[in-house]
Amino acid sequence: MDVELLYSDFRQPVQIYLTRLVKDWAVAEDLCQDTFAKALRAWNQRRSSGDSRAWLYRIATNTAYDYLNRQRIATRVLLDYGLQTARGYHTETWLDDRVLIQSVLSELPDVYRVPLVMYAWAGYSTREIAAALGCSNNCIKMRLHRARQRCQQIRQE
User: What's the domain range around 110?
Assistant: First the structure.
């Protein structure tokens, strides 16, 4: 079975599966595209004796879990800072939260704001952030810790 046949046979079932995992059709659509992009990149490294369907569903599952972990981390970071996520709120409340988040972030120095946004909202790991910013993983962890402390100080002021 080649990648094109795999896509035509499994795009819809994989998207339905992902929708069940993440409970959002639009997000599942994006994750489905990510799944097939990852499958295409790894096509030559897979075990040819293995089941292609199971291999594809493992990629889809991992892609969904990565997404859900990023959402959980972003929510935890927001709640740690005493902020609320916008999901499920009335427009006025969401706008108030958005203004609050923007004001807190605007008061952070770039050295703390950039890693925080990359970690909490873009879903990058500390290692990925360290590589992108050209510093050590421990440095990024320290900057995230200090960003959290600074956000709490700003909220109390």
Answer: 81-156
